[in-house]
TrEMBL record:
GO terms for molecular function: phosphatidic acid transfer activity. It comes from the Eukaryota. InterPro entries: PRELI/MSF1_dom (IPR006797), Slowmo/Ups (IPR037365). This is PRELI domain containing 3A. PROSITE patterns: PRELI_MSF1. Residues 1-167 form the PRELI/MSF1 domain. GO terms for cellular component: mitochondrial intermembrane space.
Length: 167
């Protein structure tokens, strides 16, 4: 398994970032996300909202992965529930017979500046049952880093367009 951890600082208050994260898809930065369905919503005993969403995505495995594994293009579905809570998080799990990605996003108010939000994003990638597994885990980690930056840009885009729509 390979672990990838990223941090992002948003120059917006926590509630603004959370609202954008809840409306993250669809967006022009992530055209591979085709649709979002809410599977479950509940408020826990501490008043935190938990939302389980299913993202329908369209993406293909890199050519080398298809060649080594004999697999065709994959179109996994991944839950992604950013939860507006004191420490909201997102859990994204993508499972196929070859690859599992367990991703967690935690949005927290900046400890010193309430006008800023810290996002900690962590992914654990495991490639099973094929040769060159560690190489493919590294390749997936790089892809996750690239996609994370698109996700951050999407949140900024949503906030910018929300503010311009209001003013």
């Amino acid at each position: 398994s390979k672990k990838k951890r990223l941090k992002k600082l948003f120059s917006h208050p926590w509630d603004t970032v959370i609202q954008a994260a809840m409306r993250k898809y669809p967006n022009p930065m992530n055209p591979s996300v085709l649709g979002v369905d809410v599977l479950q919503r509940r408020v826990d005993g501490r008043g935190r909202l938990h939302s389980l969403r299913l993202l329908s995505t369209e993406w293909g495995l890199p050519g080398l992965v298809r060649a080594v594994s004999g697999a065709g293009a994959a179109a996994p579905n991944a839950p992604d529930p950013p939860t507006p809570a004191p420490e909201p998080c997102s859990l994204k799990i993508t499972l196929t017979n070859l690859v599992s990605v367990n991703e967690r996003l935690v949005y927290t108010p900046h400890p010193e500046n309430p006008e800023m939000t810290v996002l900690t994003q962590e992914a654990i990638i495991t490639v099973k049952g094929i040769s060159l597994g560690s190489y493919l885990e590294s390749l997936m980690a790089n892809t996750i880093s690239s996609n994370a930056k698109k996700g951050w840009a999407a949140i900024e885009w949503i906030i910018e367009h929300s503010e311009s729509a209001v003013s």
